[in-house]
């Protein structure tokens, strides 16, 4: 039977049926009551000492820096402005100090080459799991040709590893009807030839968004699977990585979730290539530090993670928060809360640093990243309402607080800049803020030394050097990455500040499809989108000229970055700029096409693979996919 005949036969019979339903109860939880059941998890030896060391080091650095920078109190004592400055400086220094301390311990762990210190899953031989695992792929108005290519590749890798009968793959669609028709047609071609069962289900109403999508699957089919491996539409995992995760869950029955650390791949624009290099070069030491002190109270990023299905069902149906969106209603950033709920019920949550095999893609432009970041900002600010939830481990509360702080530090930094400019221009009577001397040196150390620690570790790892193009390419990339990160920081600071203000005004983010590919934002479009940055930069520049104060010179990079924001955004959004830098050995990470997931191997499923007589009945692809 030819492929077309097989497809015609499937078309005549209708879609491949879903598996028999295996219902699994998933009761809604309460943040106001501690669950009645749950076993005590014994943390690794010395974990409390690690955590206290991280917290105390962070607080001490923040306190010393803030005290020094507001030290010259006038004869009349501290003013209200002095108090505000102290709080701002202390908070901001604690934030960057935490990043430094976390990276420092991660660097020490990686240099010691003792992976077992941070992960209980290292060193096991590859074995096939005995239980069944469901691979869940939620989609929402995506380019399903690209998604289908990744599905096909993952199914092929599992089949080649001899694990086709241990995994089922579910495409869980929340797309609108038009996109759904194309998805179903393309899915038919996938299911026709795959040794791994591939199922497709589209909800008519996307109630509760992604968490509701997963919960609906659990209540219908969850009872048949010991584990569920949750992916995003842009996720890709190798067969070996998926098998290792499933067997790790079998060997560790007290573990409820294992979160991998996905590498970024397939970047084309300059912005995405920059982020891909930064993630590959710097994130290992940050992730190792996070794993070192998180232990069995690690966090969840929502994808590229394996979860014990029954543990999730009994723990993680999140109730809506009281009040209206954006700070009430359904929890947007549900993943970190789900990790806390699993730990509350007595299940361990770990992170795993796999050698390779877990991948994701990054938004192609700063504007696309900001769309996602706006949604995350809303969800992370909601976490502030859960800090007093009953039964949460204090480390989970710390994760939630840090997630919110990632966005609150932006308006705090902006307020500090405004007060500094006003003070330098003589608009404020306080004269306590002196951004000079060793505090500025300390700021540079806290921000940039982790990058050089990452470089030192790369020099000890030939395999990772090769993945980033070699030592010369790494040096060239860092020489571009560091100033680029300095330029981008004020731009994203104002974008996040505006997002926080928008949330506090009561505006919800909504749920828009994520654009995965783009090539260029016009300078005029960028000027419209980033006009607030230009205005603020112009104001800062004018105030510095009027003040004629040497103290304000340290603000010059901030002002210049803001004024040039549209130019920076437009240039970094282009694929030809990304390609030009890559040809010159900058951000030319070979991991953009790792051997097992090379772009030419993970070919998208094209409409041409579907017989013409069925293809004619399909709606054309929408240039601007509507939301459901």
UniProtKB/TrEMBL annotation:
UniProt key word Hydrolase: no
Transmembrane intervals: 52-71, 83-110, 400-425, 437-458, 522-545, 551-571
Keywords associated with the record: Cell inner membrane, Cell membrane, Glycosyltransferase, Membrane, Transferase, Transmembrane, Transmembrane helix
Gene3D superfamilies membership: Spore Coat Polysaccharide Biosynthesis Protein SpsA, Chain A
Domain Glycosyltransferase 2-like: 229-443
Membrane topology: Multi-pass membrane protein
Family: Belongs to the glycosyltransferase 2 family. OpgH subfamily.
Protein name: Glucans biosynthesis glucosyltransferase H
Organism: Sphingomonas sanxanigenens DSM 19645 = NX02
